Structures are given as C-alpha cells and as structure tokens.
Amino acid sequence: MNLRTIANSKIQGINKDLNIFLRISDGYTQGNGARQIPLYLPDVEIKGQLQAADEEFLKQQDGLNLESVYRNLYISGNLDGVVRSRIKGGDLVIISNEEWLIVKVLEHWSDWVKVLICLQSQ
C-alpha cells in the first residue's frame, strides 16, 4: 500500500504537485587552486509536493541568525542527503527556475521520501 499516493491524491485540491527537475550530484572535479567544481547527472523531470517547513525545524533555527528559505519536499522515489564517505550529496531541485539544495532527508520510505530543501542564492 502506497500511503503517499493515497494522501497526495487528497491534497491535490488544495496544494497541487509541481513539475520539478532533479539534479543528482555526480561528485566533483577540481578547478584552479584545487577548488571543487560540482558535477551533476542530466536533469530528471518529476512531480513533487512542496510544503512549508515544520514548526519544530523553524524553532530550532530561531536565534541562529539564519536568513534562508526552507521548505519540505515530498517525492516518489528515493534520495540521499550528504554522505561524505561515499562522495554523495549536494543534490539540487529546480522549481520554477529557482535552485534548491537538498539539505536533509527527513523521512525515507521504500517508495517515497520527504526532504528539507534550502533556496540557493541566485
């Protein structure tokens, strides 16, 4: 039973899925001065449900002088957060021409994932 599909079908009347592009990190190369330059696999278009960040997360950020924009993103499939030992992470999602970094996997199930994303400077 795919609970995300059931819940998502009920939410569509209020908050429709968005077309997003997933840009999976493929490691990095080195530029001048040993500067790391990220490499990405070709973009993949998928549907995702964008929602406000959880109140609990926002409370944790209170007083840390962070001025970033965070959202939760639900998608079918699986993503990983940063796994430095495997040189993984730094995956991006493109939503309405805005670049968002996947900063944390909040829920990881067999057929869907909830991730925390942070808007990147343009």
Explain what this protein looks like in three dimensions.
With 122 residues, this protein is mainly beta. Helix content is 13%, strand content 46%. The chain is built from two helices and eight strands. It has a six-stranded antiparallel β-barrel with strand order 1-4-5-8-7-6. A two-stranded antiparallel ribbon has the order 2-3. The protein is elongated, with a radius of gyration of 16 Å.
Fold topology:
Elements: H1 3-11, E1 18-23, E2 25-30, E3 36-40, E4 44-52, H2 55-61, E5 70-76, E6 92-95, E7 98-108, E8 112-119
For this entry, give a set of tags.
single chain, 122 residues, mainly beta, Thrombin, subunit H, six-stranded antiparallel beta barrel, two-stranded antiparallel ribbon, 2 helices, 13% helix, elongated
> What is the gyration radius calculated from CA atoms?
16 Å
The number of E-state strands comes to 8
When the domains are counted, the total is 1
**CATH architectural name:** Beta Barrel
CATH topological fold name: Thrombin, subunit H
Bin the strand percentage.
over 45%
> How can the largest sheet be summarized?
6 strands, antiparallel, barrel
The CATH class name reads Mainly Beta
Low-confidence stretches: none
Helix share bin:
10-25%
**Which overall shape is indicated by the principal axes computed on the Cα atoms?**
elongated
- End-to-end span in angstroms? 40 Å
| Helix-strand string | HEEEEHEEEE
Which strand order do you get reading across the main beta sheet?
Answer: 1-4-5-8-7-6
